[in-house]
Amino acid sequence: MLQKSPFKMFFKSLKGLLCLKLRIAVCLYFDLTAEAVYARKAQGYEPMSYYKNNRELKGVIDRIKSGYFSHGDTELFRPIVDSLLYDDQYMLLADYQSYADCQEQVSEAYRDRDKWTRMSILNSVRMAKFSSDRTIWEYCQEIWKVNPVKISLED
Predict the structure, then answer these.
(1) What is the dihedral angle through the alpha carbons of 67, 72, 75, 79, rounded to the nearest 10 degrees?
(2) Nucleus: is it a keyword of this entry (predicted)?
(3) Residue 154 counted as domain residue
(4) pTM of the full predicted structure?
């Protein structure tokens, strides 16, 4: 039986929380849900099938294998290619088409300069809730139950 990864479950929840808390106009997701990962692994995930059935993905992998990015050295990236095609423990090939589709949505949003600028500014401003200063302050107050210590600095 597959164990659910607490990290993956937390990360999936965090993405939804970020969209909710930040009131982001467009939240674009490209990865498999935790449930889909467990289901595919339970059914026997075959990364090679994604390679064979997605022409664009096959072209990307084939270009890497060909030595195009390594001055003709076809062995340099072989461990990465083999890992993707025969193991792919992070299910990157399964996520590829979803990622490509999401990237197209991002590109489309970016082409609308006014919308993109507005989204960027609002999202930046709304990130304050997730600042490390605020997080540390809350940990000090709510979890560790400690108070700040004043430090005098010499000139």
Answers:
(1) -30
(2) no
(3) no
(4) 0.61
